[in-house]
Amino acid sequence: IKKEADVVIIGSGGAGMSAAVEAIDSGASVIVIDKQSAVGGNTLLAGSALNASDPERQKQQTMSEAELKTIENILAVEPKNDTMKAWHDTLKKEIDEYKASGANYLFDSPSLHKLQTYIDGDFVAEAEKVDILGENGPEAIKFLEGLGAKWIEQIQAAVGATWKRSHTPTTDLGTQGASFVLPQANYAKDNGADIMLDSKAEELIMTDGRCTGVKGTATDGQPFEITAKKGVIIATGGFGANVEMRQKYNKHWATLDESVDTTNGPFATGDGIVMADAAGANLVDMEWIQLIPTYGPGVFTPYIENQFYINKEGNRFVHEDGRRDELSKAVLEQTDAQLYIISDANTVKDGMTTTGRNVDERVGNGYAWKADTIEELAEMIGVPVENLQASVDQFNNSIRTGNDPFGRTVFDKEFGEGPFYAGLTGPMVHHTMGGIQVTTKCEVLDTNGNIIPGLFAAGEVTGGVHGANRLGGNAITDVIVFGRIAGQNVVK
Ligand code: ADP
Question: Which domain holds residue 38?
Fold first, then answer.
């Protein structure tokens, strides 16, 4: 098969489909290819949330003294460069005004989002990328709303988000992840994009140093070759499901061999990274691989505020609102490297989570338990009841006093009304922070720092946006914001 279009996009996840919308809106003809038989990628699988400051919604919620202290701690971090200094100065001014006004609503701003992203990524990310991410988050919300996405009212904190700015889609479009990619996919289809499924890209076509198309093979064995008149966008996601690549680049975990499960679909094999590498692209931050300790069949919701974690002895062991790398490391030190996530009626009502998942369907699957009392729950999961009760008491006391022994500051309501739930899980490979190096316009850079003409990349396939650790809920912001930027620039 031979085809031609202005723009060829490899990968139909959130990044690829956001790019498609922008390229179409600029009047370009677009072909999207995906090796799977359905669109969506890991974005569709995401049980997840979109982080963006959204004062209008956040002002409906209150902020505790402990949360205000978190902001002060952030302001106490010495700026590393001028970009960070600018965020810092803006936030300082905003917080001074906030305090002077005597308000107690949940504060947020792009500056706070940027600082948290950069600090919690250990300053490994490129500050300019973090700036774009935080600045364009609010616009990403509007973009998705404009294409039909809707959110539940409460702004929550996804695991590892470290702040309540995670937007949860309603389940109108099916899974939660659906709202982050199907609105764009439907728009692209309705506006003439050619979406070629079951088509695996294998090689970038390079002509005199310029990327002019893509070659590959369809699932039925047919080879294809697509010429891109303006450019190719790589949006193939990460390599979380590629054990060999994980092992090759991992420096920070004892092992990432096949004994470590992944939350990713089997298609997340890093193909775009390998193809770009072969075309001379530079790769950055490849060693940073994210494990998440709170996924799997026993987990009801990706949010933390109304849940706490215990080990197999029934004791809390970590501040649940911490970074994903900290949480994963803490869990790896516990018995069997597992944890129980404990929930009550604040998370699950009438068998449904606040995010619209049917929990009762999961109970009894070997990973999830439900009980009317704390005693009964402790017995079911085999932990000493006095320890579980002490953990409940500790959680509530931390809310009342604002002083948690593990330093947790993100809470919502006190724990107490049953039924009670426990979910058993452990760390799994979730996201690869490293990948192709790109400019702030998503142009791919080669190993000499020069732009490779005609070649763009966006989403998890790129590196430099998150640094050493990605905040929970920032991946969706990344794919929408940078997918759009790639789609706008490829046609220029
Ligand atoms: P992102 O979150 O960065 O948008 P996703 O994981 O959501 O990434 O989507 C990536 C998509 O790319 C998946 O649907 C996957 O099937 C597709 N993909 C990965 N490798 C290839 C390839 N070699 N050819 C075509 N599609 C690919």
Answer: 1-293+429-492
